[in-house]
Specification:
elongated, six-stranded mixed β-sheet, single chain, disordered N terminus
């Protein structure tokens, strides 16, 4: 098995992303608003529920009331939090400390889903007051939504935007504010670097596991091939014995030969008539075997000299 490229490093999956910016969010279902009061309500409802995280589902299946257990399985988990959005420079409601399940990560890496859809409650002024969960979807209601997994080109543009936001903040900030912004940016770079290192470590570990699996498969294939060869050899030896072409005392010898040697040995036996055994007294009373065919006497070493039998 070729183990040179067993594992392809996946796209970086987000562990933190903005769900709603403070202010207006335009959607296909109308405009919604988030302010500090609404954000406080969202976090208070989350704390009051007592769960440590909120789940990701697919297509809001958790909210359909379906009796199918698979509709209620999570594809990831997150903690809602209000933080500064480095891309816009504004406060936003974030999904933080995101932990994707194996199925969720696979769907995102394969780009089977690319966007998200928060399930929310809102008041008469369309101010968001509660967050139930977030669905993975390909039909987000939010307009101009940023994909969860960016292409390489989009990721580069995103980094450039974040850098420009930082520079704009530095231009308008005092010395203390500038230092704070630089510290925030350094912390973000450190976080991204740690995530990348973790992804690389996981890729290396997975590659090693796949390489070990490949070696195990090759060993099992070799063992199976050996067993098949031995089974065939046993059958051929048995046929030669039944045909009177081979002595029982020669079975272990025949079994020890390589395939090429056995083929030559078997061919030489098949070309002669049935064998008979004679025992003659040799030097010092030893027993000596010779082989006979009708009309001819010969020794094994003369007949099979090419394979070195003595």
């Amino acid at each position: 098995m070729d183990t040179e490229l067993l594992f392809v490093l996946p796209k970086e999956l987000p562990t933190r992303f903005a769900l709603f910016q403070f202010g207006k969010t335009e959607t296909s279902k109308g405009d919604f608003y988030l302010d500090q009061a609404g954000a406080d309500s969202i976090l208070a409802n989350f704390a009051a529920h007592g769960a440590d995280r909120l789940p990701f589902d697919v297509g809001h299946n958790m909210l359909t009331g379906s009796p199918d257990p698979s509709a209620h399985m999570a594809f990831g988990w997150f903690i809602p939090a209000v933080e500064l959005d480095e891309t816009t420079g504004n406060l936003a409601l974030f999904a933080t400390d995101v932990q994707w399940t194996e199925r969720g990560a696979e769907m995102l890496n394969k780009r089977e889903v690319r966007f998200f859809s928060p399930a929310i409650h809102f008041d008469a002024k369309r101010r968001i007051t509660k967050l139930t969960n977030v669905a993975l979807t390909n039909l987000p209601a939010t307009r101009n939504q940023r994909p969860l997994v960016l292409s390489d080109e989009t990721a580069q543009i995103d980094k450039e935007k974040r850098m420009q936001v930082l520079l704009d903040c530095l231009d308008s900030a005092d010395e203390a504010g500038a230092v704070a912004k630089v510290s925030e940016f350094k912390a973000e770079l450190s976080r991204v670097n740690q995530e990348l290192q973790s992804a690389v470590s996981e890729a290396i570990e997975a590659n090693a596991q796949l390489a070990a699996l490949g070696a195990q498969v090759e060993a099992e294939k070799a063992e199976a091939a050996k067993a098949l060869s031995e089974s065939r050899r046993a059958g051929e030896i048995e046929s030669l014995l039944n045909a009177g072409k081979l002595f029982v005392s020669q079975k272990s010898f025949a079994a020890s030969l390589s395939d090429e040697q056995f083929a030559e040995f078997s061919e030489s036996l098949v070309s002669h008539r049935a064998l008979s055994l004679t025992i003659e007294d040799g030097d010092q009373g030893a027993v000596k075997l010779s082989q006979k065919t009708e009309g001819a006497d010969f020794r094994a070493e003369d007949l099979f000299h090419s394979i070195g039998e003595k």
